[in-house]
Design goal:
Layout (H helix, E strand, L loop, with lengths): L12 E5 L5 E6 L2 H10 L2 E7 L2 E10 L18 H19 L1
Antiparallel strand pairs: 1-2, 2-4, 3-4
Length: about 100
Amino acid sequence: MDDYRVPTDEQETVIQFDRSGTVCHVYTTDSMVMTKLDKIHKRVKQDYVNGKPIAAYYEFDKGLLSFRKRRMTGKFSNSDAHRIAVKKNLSKARKSNNS
């Protein structure tokens, strides 16, 4: 029992926030989620077993939490029409920034 780990199928992440509040609370035992959140937020509290952290708590502004309609696939259109449209939009944005 020296090297206790939460089994993968039992790892969980709980996100809690109030409708009228401004703070989002996250509790997780998922090591992948901990790694991602550690890069952008500070841990508020940790739970330990045999001196090793097995769970972490985070708090951050609720406005930083977002929900997406679709999963991002990373596949983007490389058609000529798409490239021309992107080029026009970029050119337009640069002109408005220089004005």
